[in-house]
Amino acid sequence: MISQWRLRAAFARRLSAMYGREVPAYTTLVDVSREVNEDVLRDRGADAERLGSIGRVTAERHGAVRVGTPAELQQVARVFGALGMHPVGFYDLREAAASAVPVVSTAFRPVDGEELARNPFRVFTSLLTPADPRFFDPELRARLETFLAGRELFPPELLALADRAEAEGELPDDAAERFLQLAVAAFELSTQPIDRVWYETLEKVSAVAADIGGVRSTHVNHLTPRVLDIDELYRRMTARGIEMIDAIQGPPGGRGPAVLLRQTSFRALAEPRTMREPDGQVREGALRVRFGEVEARGIALTRAGRERYDTLLAGVDERLAHDPDADRPSVARTLWADLMPGTEHELAAQGLAYFTYRPAPERPRDGAHPPTALADLLATGWLRAEPIVYEDFLPRSAAGIFQSNLTDRGRRDDDQTATAYDSTWLSGALDRDVLDPYTLYDAQQRRSLEAAAEELGIAVPGTQGLAQRERATR
Predict the structure, then answer these.
(1) Residue 175 to residues 105, 134, 163: CA-CA distances in angstroms?
(2) CATH 3.40.50.150 fits 2-299+391-435, yes or no
(3) What is the phi/psi pair of residue 44, to 5°?
(4) What DSSP string describes 48-113?
(5) pTM
(6) In terms of Cα–Cα distance, which of 220, 231, 286, 298 is closest to 258?
(7) Residue extent(s) of CATH 3.10.180.80 domains in the chain
(8) Is residue 366 very low, low, confident or very high in pLDDT (cuts 50, 70, 90)?
(9) Three-class DSSP category at 277
């Protein structure tokens, strides 16, 4: 029998091999990521594995797929459910993007700490929003919804096997092999001719809309390795002659512990696609829709930490509005030094980041009773704080990656009222709960505190005291 996590690991490996055949530059990206990780491990030693073992980091991938209807989203959730992956987080890229990106998204991933350690494969999954009148007028919406209703992305056999794997938590060898074959095939780039006029009609609204609703299949839009030094990777990829997007998305690098998520990519490459003309003739064409993304993950921030980060972004935007010629990374680094702590201890002390807490092996053994406040337990050596890796995404960064690989800004009528979407709506569309990432991180941190308190024989300390103590001593 093949368990869900082994299915997940096998699917990630096979998807990576398939995508490497379709987009050879992705293989170069993986190779350079591996080289950078090996160099960082050699230079930094154990510190390089502070946010995950080198084995996990090297194997780690996140994919991105796009679907057109709630029914298709439900089906893709069943496929990922077979792999032990759950929808986590709601991302509205319509509001995060300056260009026309008419999608809302979630990410399917494992949520249990042990499952994440075994294989943290995640898939950022976007849903087209034809009901939003800012992008689609009634006539185009009707045509688009009719087109989407007439296609099948996932064969019934795949969905039946997926349901069995999710219900039973495993599959027999033969069924597992069949499931993997069908699942990988469902995300391959189709060779079916594309209706050129229909595709270009949607492309005038948004290249993302055309990629979703202008074809009769779905495909992997990018597959992302994880790297320990994304700035070095950016330099090495550029040195190899691969055109990268203009900037690294996410927090500025270079000072203090890594937090949240930094991402970049090489630019979308022209891929040959066959196009069907109005007279029925099929001609060779090319589309630029897929690209190679890479990411560096840091520590998960609490809600307070995320508010601090959003304040930083707003400050950068404000300064650049007054001085458009300023260098954005330099401005961001300056503000970051003012707003964000420079050490893990300060992040914990101010309640800005998530950690797991464990009794320190070298804690006092002289019979003294440990203090009760978490800040004191850390300061006096009773507890160790280990950072919790950020497993999720940043809507503005995702939108920035999407925008950097679009041919133009598309079309958007902001005189129209936006159609409302939120996590509750998405849960209904999926017919399964969209989990709150903060709740997951809170629970992980809380469980560690409860276990540590039991071992030390004290009441469970509250994390809110950390921020209070830090303010009192400043």
Answers:
(1) 30, 45, 12
(2) no
(3) -105, -15
(4) GGTTS-HHHHHH-EEEEEEESSHHHHHHHHHHHHTTT-EEEEEEEHHHH-SS---EEEEEEE--SH
(5) 0.91
(6) 298
(7) 2-299+391-435
(8) confident
(9) coil
